[in-house]
Amino acid sequence: MKHPLLLLLVLWTTAAHPQTTFNVSYSATQIRQPLDGRVLLILAKTNKPEPRQQVSDAVETAQLFGIDVNGLKPGQPAVVDASVFGYPKRSLKDLAPGDYYVQAVLHKYETFKRKDGHIVKLPMDRGEGQNWRTAPGNMFSKPQKISIRRGAKQSVAVVMDQVNPPIEAPKDTKFIKHIKIQSKRLTEFWGRPMYLGAHVLLPAGFDEHPDARFPICINHGHFPADFDGFSETPPAANMDTTDYIERFKIYGYKKIVAQEAYDFYKKWTSKDFPRMLIVEIQHANPYYDDSYAVNSENLGPYGDAIMYELLPEIEKRFRGIGQGWARFTYGGSTGGWEALAAQVFYPDEFNGCFAACPDPIAFDAYTVFNLYKDKNAYYSEGPFRRTPRPGQRNYLGQVKVTLEETNHRELALGTHSRSGDQFDIWEAVYSPVGADGYPKRVWNKLTGEIDTTVAAYWRDHYDLLHILRRDWKTLGPKVTGKIHLYCGDMDNYYLNNAVYLMEDFLKSVKSPSANSEVAYGDRAEHCWNGDPTQPNYISRLRYNTMYVDKILKRIEESAPKGADLKSWRY
Question: In the UniProt record, does the keyword Signal occur (predicted)?
Fold first, then answer.
């Protein structure tokens, strides 16, 4: 028999929202054909900014519910009721009575008939870098204020009658050029035209020195709308400086960013700065804002497409030297992992990588847990206690969100690894294809229980430390002297834990020695990139100049006899 107080609580909760439902539909005035996708319903306590902009890992996050729809017709309601999974509250019945602002978004999916025979429905990137809030063609409703009343039967109609507009492509300038190619490899894999793009920063004097050929640096990172951090004009003297960045505890950061962009332009065009090409790649895909620049069962051969289709085209159009000794990679976070992965998977094609705050490069330190030995991603478990694992922290170690919470946000955003967010893209890149055509779950997204067979696949194919250790006999001679790692020892996502393990290996390995560099920023948070002389909020804006001296030294030490070391040093 249930305890009387527990029974009373159950009855009170049920009575508070006996049948609160939302009927979400879209208007035929905007789109007339049936749509597939994910209906997202957001409730917030304020409408500034709009509720869709308030979903996050922060404790102040808006409430989110999500439901898949297939062939949803104009005017046909998608019903969000107490059975629909939500974040951070799991069910509508858990919401307290009161006033809310509600908004709905339909994140559109397309059908892909892949080369492997699987048919999957996914949100194709439409130039926005996989952002469900702004993706062109996504339907959404205007925020409306509602009241959830205790004990009342309620049905709230939400009509999506707005459509996100197309995104204008960036325009070429004197120094910044844009390139877009259709990839043969990716088109074949996905069964439809697929493209790769890049923003190329040209050196000063490019047109005036037509016989010069240039080294190339690939600055890896998240989806770049345009080449960032370069401006031919200084910030206005009266530029507003009232903006406050809580993370850095400073005002006026937008002006600081603008000034750094102009300072980079002045340095880039100065007399003694080495002339080279810097490239930012656009490789957004149906799972994320970039591909992680490797081949993957679920995403396709992005590594080979970038390496053997896009990069040669860039070097052809913009007079790159086109040899491994003159190619370098760098980046932070996602870009840090990609820089190291490119060096590991294509060791002869690059002459050095500079990886800052890289995503986990050893999965036995997969943020705060061991993917191979632990049973649960969300909890450390003993015989009498389960302790939640932290997901983010600040430099004092204060926890912002748990791993369970951030994964549940992703689960509300999309099933089948379709949230377009961090843990889901790791899964999409690293996992084998499941029987349904979607990535195999490395852990149960709801409970955190780890699948050891999938974890073993991750280890053998994408654990960079494991691969280096396993293949050092053949890889070592090709990467010695090329690996540079930088990380704050208070990285917000605990990414320093894997760097520690990589450092131990690189220091101890012989035949050959790694001749690598590993450095840590004291109390530095995410995106620390190796400069102990500057605060992190400055150094993170200087990726494109941070490693130039080391690149030049590496070229001098390793360029083959007869290599062009002069035409680009005008």
Answer: yes
